[in-house]
Amino acid sequence: MMSKLARLSAFVALLVWAPPVAAEDARTVMKQSIDQVLAALREPGLSHEERLRRVEKVAEARFDFKRMSKLVLARNRKKLSAEQQDEFLVEFQKHLTMTYGRRLGEFSNETIEMGDARTESNGDVTVKTIVRGGAADGVLIDYRMRARDDSWYVIDVIIEGISLISNFRSQVQEIVSTKGADQLIDVLREKNEKEAQES
Amino acid sequence: MTKDPFRVTVLLVASLLCACATTTSEPVTEAPSAQLEPATDEPDSESATDESDPFQRVNRGVFWFNDGLDRVLLEPLAAGWTWMTPEVVPVRLGKFFDNLRFPIRFVNNLFQLDLKQTGRELGRFVTNTTVGLVGFFDPATGWGLEKRDEDFGQTLGWWGVPTGPYLMLPLLGPSSVRDGFGYLVDTPLRVTTWLWFLRPPELINSRALLLDDIRELRRASLDYYVSVRNAYTQFRRAQVANGEVPTEETYDDLYEVIDDDE
Lengths: 199, 262
What we know:
The complex is a heterodimer.
Chain A: H1 4-17, H2 23-42, H3 48-62, H4 65-73, H5 82-104, E1 111-119, E2 125-132, E3 140-148, E4 151-159, E5 162-163, H6 164-179, H7 181-198
Antiparallel strand pairs in A: 1-2, 2-3, 3-4, 4-5
Helix pairs in contact in A: 2-3, 4-5, 4-6, 5-7, 6-7
Chain B: H1 4-14, H2 25-36, H3 56-84, H4 88-100, H5 102-111, H6 115-130, H7 139-142, H8 152-158, E1 166-169, E2 173-176, H9 177-186, H10 191-194, H11 199-209, H12 211-220, H13 224-240, H14 248-254
Antiparallel strand pairs in B: 1-2
Helix pairs in contact in B: 1-13, 2-3, 3-11, 4-11, 5-6, 8-9, 8-13
């Protein structure tokens, strides 16, 4: 009979040898999230606010907003105090949520076709999707995902080759270098307040 | 068929006479001071982005002009056109005009030595012009003849010519030294160069397809000028790469969190 120790070590070895969460898993969790969003958009009888809230919940669970805001700030992060960084995260998340919530209103009969997943050189996985039907027919949307804890989280959305992180980063860079880092949060907050009023 | 909204968001924000805009005055008036003051500290102005824009001051002025013109002229015309037609009309008409851009795609696929895609373009044009009723419909895509937008700017990029500085062209929108030159070279292949009366309807219709996208871009940007510049630069890079992981070397740095403290 196998000694306890042997069994334990076999178990540990199994754990160690278990292949790391693969590209396929990133694709699977992304597909789940997309299905949840589409379900929320299609469910009849929901008000716009309810729909939005359900989509936001999916996004909060699948997007790593913290990492995204760090990637957007990049080098400029060092110019912000810890409190300012937290504030930026809050406003940035609010900004993204509002922007995409508004756009969702335009979605009606589109479906999302899942494409391949590609493992990047740094271990991230890019999950490709294509919009089918509607006005955005054929548009390519890639999700760059990174493993954290025991799952995969979105750290960038790339539409037709245009990375959201890169786009925001260059705007942040411009504001920091022309108006100064302290102004950055004010600019973002002002923008959010204005948008909240308009919508 | 394909990609119109976003493609064109940039392509037209990009190359047609769409004017593009700053969230009006604010970033534009900021531009001069941005030029006079040295970047705050550290030479990091290029650390976070790789868009070369030495003519920013002039570009911002042109951008402001284009945007103004768009707001008073093109956008209202496009909105009116959208208002008086059911949605399918602008979409179909957009496909018709796209079919007319066949010569540019055909020749530039050839210049990039992609005989397969050159053949596909020819097949597309023949199919969509006949079965697709002069291009209003696109049966070719369904039959496996996918379109790929090409132009001489992309051909130059394919041959390794760098983009050069970013340029905001009056009336034409975002471009670069390379792409602006490419635009000139493509001129004889542009059907609307010869059938010039098609140009205004093409323009209004293309703009109509972008009403939501551009309105959204204006609203969501912190600095609309920079947002358009970045989107144009990334979009063109992806176009030149023809869907083959263009991004590896530029992106790995993008996804590195500096001094991560977790």
